[in-house]
Each structure stands twice: as C-alpha cells, then as structure tokens.
From TrEMBL:
Keyword set includes Glycoprotein: no
Protein name as annotated: Restriction endonuclease subunit R
Annotated keywords: Endonuclease, Hydrolase, Nuclease
InterPro entries: HSDR_N
Pfam families listed in its UniProt record: HSDR_N_2
Domain Type I restriction enzyme R protein N-terminal: from-to ranges: 47-128
Acidic residues compositional bias, start-end: 232-247
GO molecular function, one term: endonuclease activity
Gene3D superfamilies (alphabetical): 3.90.1570.30
Region entry Disordered, spans: 223-250
Length: 362
C-alpha cells in the first residue's frame, strides 16, 4: 500500500466532506467509496467490482452496495451509508446478514466515508462475522497500513487471513485480561509474595494490577501494529531510538495544556492512565469540561462511556473495568493504548477551546 496514495485519498476525501458534509448515500458511494475501493487495488471499471450485487436471503433477495470478486467469486462485501449519517450497530448487523448468506465472502466493510468497520469470518473455525478493526478516515494518515488487510493483493495471497487471525488472537487476549483483571492481578500478587516475601516495603497488589494494565496496553499496541511491514529505515529506528526510549528511567508522561501557544498547566505522572486522568481533572476543574460534554455519559463511540458520573457504561455494557476516579465524583474510562489516550485528552482540550501537547514517555 503506497503511503503517498493513501494520504492523497485522505486529503481529497476530507476536502469533499468539508464541502458537502450532508452527502446522501449515492453521492457518498460515487465520491468516497468508489475511490476507496480503487485505493485497495480493485478495478472499479472491470467485472471484479460489482455494484448492487444481489444477495439471496431467506425471505427473498436484497442487494449489497458493492461486491469485490476474485474471478467469478465474491470475496468482499462493502456496504455504504450516507456521509451525513453515523455508523451504528444496525448498519453492522445488516452487513453481517449479507455475509452470512454467501460462504465465500469472508470480508466485509461498512462505511460512511468517514468511519470504517471491517468484519471477517476468519479461517480459524469462527463462524460468526466478527468486527475486526474500526478506524476513522483521519487515522489513515498515521496508519496507512490499516488498509493492507483489504487490498486485493493481500486477499488474493491469503495474507489477509493471517493478519486477521493474529489480530483476533490479540483481541481475545485483551478481552480475557479485561474481564479477569482482578483475578489475574490477585494470582500474580500471590506469586510475587511467595517469591519475595510479604514484608517487602512495596504495595505489590497495586504493582500487580498496574502490570496487568500495562500488558493490556502492550497487547492493544501490538494489535494495531499487526500487518505493518516496516521499511529498512523503520527497522533501524526500532533498534536505536525505541530501545533508547525503553531504557529511559524517567518514566514521566507529560501533558501541557495550552492556549494559543501559552502553557496554562503542565501535568505529569509516571503512569499513562494517571497522566490522562490528571489532565482531565484539570480541564474539569478549571475549564468547565463537563458542561461541554453534558449530558453524561459521554460516549464518543457507540458503546463505551469515556466519562460518566458512575463507573459504568450505558446500556448493557456494564461496569467500567479500567477507570480512574476524577474530581467531583466523575469517572474516566482508561482502557486505551497510548495513542488513543493522547487522542482523547486532545479531544477534551479542544472541547474547552484549548490544545494538548505531549512530551516525555508519550
């Protein structure tokens, strides 16, 4: 996947969205989805891309917006939604139902030109169409490799299946640790106490919990990195600058809240989640962040609350398993990798008309 082509696609799509934010579905297909398919290496002027592909359902027939074919066999379904709409679970479930009808279709994408969700059946025995990755248009500037999994070349060679299996395995490990965090941390703490004794002057229980949090973060970052093919220059960076960063013992994550270049506050902590919470607390207490987010819970995605006045997600999502308690009895969900923690802090700052800069371990 050529990075320059991806960035040109993103720039053009963002310009079109800025000029026509209320695009209907047909305009979204023509202006945004067709160029997206071409970016993936599929020839939209050939028979390998079939618009309005007929899908036989139990109750009759329906049509999926685009089917991508290898030979005469559809292998990817793409369902388009208007740019003026938001993706929701109904959109995803609709695509699932289409994929379920055609055994050879292992891949699906639902998009409104701004947000993308990729589904797969996988090749590891899973029957259900699972949500593999979700990303925004702007994410492609930093992660053009996200599209590799959908490229014609990768699907044709079987590389996509390998990537999907690795992502799914990492995702399963993350979910298991999140759901069993207390038990895993307790058992780890017991092992530590057996090895070093209970009299050690350290809160080993807290350290064990922090270790599990760190493992979840590492798995999330690894999940994002799967499928990336580093260049020789990237490999050299990993062997030098990243190792030096890993050896940095300062461990400080620094967030500067700024207004037009003027630093209003500098928050720092040796833990990513605590630094995120400190910055959020500052914005709540000094810049009325909550009034900019109300009504709570604040749910920027479709499921999890980012901030709530109780440690729970809305609906059936249940209790926040990883959170920090904020000032004035608010709760911040912190189960994110480093990149997403930065993104959410920046989002909070922008809500208050400010900017966030990141230094140190970030």
């Amino acid at each position: 996947m050529d990075e320059r082509d991806v960035r040109e696609f993103v720039d053009e799509a963002e310009s079109l969205l800025e000029a026509s934010p209320q695009m209907d579905e047909e305009a979204t297909k023509f202006r945004l989805v067709v160029p997206f398919i071409e970016l993936l290496g599929w020839n939209t002027r050939s028979t390998e891309v079939e618009p309005e592909h007929t899908v036989r359902m139990a109750t009759g027939k329906t049509k999926v917006d685009f089917a991508l074919l290898l030979g005469d066999t559809p292998v990817v379904f793409i369902e388009a939604k208007p740019a003026r709409s938001t993706l929701d679970e109904d959109s995803v479930e609709q695509l699932r139902s289409y994929m379920r009808q055609e055994l050879e279709v292992d891949w699906g994408v639902v998009t409104n030109g701004k947000s993308f969700e990729v589904l797969t059946k996988g090749n590891d025995g899973r029957q259900e169409e699972i949500s593999l990755i979700q990303f925004e248009l702007e994410d492609l500037n930093e992660r053009p490799d996200l599209l590799e999994i959908l490229s014609k070349e990768s699907i044709q060679s079987g590389k996509s299946d390998e990537i999907a299996t690795q992502i799914a395995q990492a995702g399963d490990a993350i979910i298991h640790l999140q759901e069993n965090k207390e038990r895993v941390a307790k058992e780890l703490n017991e092992v530590l106490l057996d090895e070093i004794g209970a009299s050690v002057p350290l809160d080993t229980e807290a350290q064990a919990t922090e270790f599990v949090d760190g493992l979840i973060t590492a798995l999330e970052e690894q999940r994002r990195a799967i499928g990336t093919t580093p260049s020789p220059e990237d490999e050299e960076e990993v062997s030098t600058s990243e190792i030096e960063e890993a050896q940095d013992t300062s461990g400080e994550y620094i967030i500067k809240i700024q207004d037009g270049g003027t630093t209003l506050a500098t928050l720092s902590d040796d833990n990513q989640s605590d630094a995120m919470a400190d910055a959020t607390d500052y914005l709540i207490e000094n810049h009325n962040l909550i009034s900019e987010l109300e009504p709570l819970p604040f749910v920027p995605g479709r499921k999890n609350a980012l901030i709530n006045n109780e440690p729970e997600h809305p609906g059936d999502e249940g209790e926040m398993r990883t959170y920090r308690e904020l000032a004035n009895d608010y709760y911040l969900f912190t189960s994110f990798n480093k990149r997403d923690k930065k993104r959410h802090v920046q989002r909070f700052a922008e809500k208050c008309g400010l900017e966030a800069e990141f230094e140190g371990g970030w």
